[in-house]
Amino acid sequence: MVELVAQAAAGDAAWASFRTPLDKSSLLDFCRDIERLLRINPYLEFGKWESCGDNCYRFQGRNLSQAPPFDFDLKLQVESRPDGLQFRYDGGLKSSTTFSVKGIAGGSELTITEDYGALAEEERKTRLHEVDKSLVKWSEDLQAYLVLWNRWRWFPPWRFYMRRVWQPMKPVARRITYILLWISLVEVALIALGVAIYFVEYR
Questions:
Q1: Residue 89 contacts by C-beta under 8 Å, 6 or more apart in sequence?
Q2: Is the bond into 171 cis (omega within 30 degrees of 0)?
Q3: pTM strictly above 0.90
C-alpha cells in the first residue's frame, strides 16, 4: 500500500513513500531505467522519447492527470545520488523529481519527491493547469509493478512482454488489453466448464 507522506502546497513540493519487496541495491538498479520508470506512470501518454547525451533525455507527450489534459515537451537531466536519483527538468512547471531509496527489513522503501519551487510564485500561480497530479497513482502503480517484477523477473517471456509490448502502450491501451485478457480467461473457463458438464452427463 502506498503511504502518502505529505503534500506541502506552501513549500511547493509533494512526496509519496512506499515499501517494495526488492533489496536496496535491486531497487536502485531498477530506478536507473529512466524510460521505464516514467512510462509506468498511468497518466502520461508518450509521443516521443530520445536520448540527448549522457544522462540526458527529451520526451514529449500528454499529461492526463488534469482536466483538460495538457501537453508537455521536456528535457530531463539525471543526476545520481548515493541513495537514488534526481531528475532536473528544463521546461514545464515542475523543477525536479527525486527518488530516494532506503533499505528496510524485508525489502526497501522508495520516496518520490516532486518540487515546483524553481519558478517565482506569481508565475507558478498562473500555470496551475500544468501541475502534475499523478504522483499518488504513479506511486501505487510503481509499487504494483515492483511486486510483479520481484516475482517474475526470472521469467524471460514475462520480461519480454513487459518491455516490448506493455511498456510502449498508451495507458488506455493497457486498460483495454487487461479487460480483453480477463474476458478471454472467462471464455476459456466457460468452455472448460461446458466440456466438463458434457463428460459428466454423457460419458
A1: 74, 75, 76, 77, 95, 96, 97
A2: no
A3: no
CATH code assigned to 3-155: 3.30.530.20
**Side-chain half-sphere CA neighbours of 189 within 13 A:** 6
- First-to-last alpha carbon distance for the chain, in angstroms, is 49
Find out whether 30 and 22 touch, Cβ atoms under 8 Å: yes
In tens, the pLDDT along 132-144 reads: 999 999 999 999 9
DSSP 19-31: EESS-HHHHHHHH
For residue 87, what are the contacts with CB-CB under 8 A and spacing of at least 6?
A: 34, 76, 77, 78, 79, 96, 97, 98
How far is Cα 75 from Cα 91, in angstroms, rounded to an integer? Answer: 7
Strand order in the sheet with 44-51: 3-8, 13-20, 107-115, 96-104, 84-90, 70-81, 56-63, 44-51
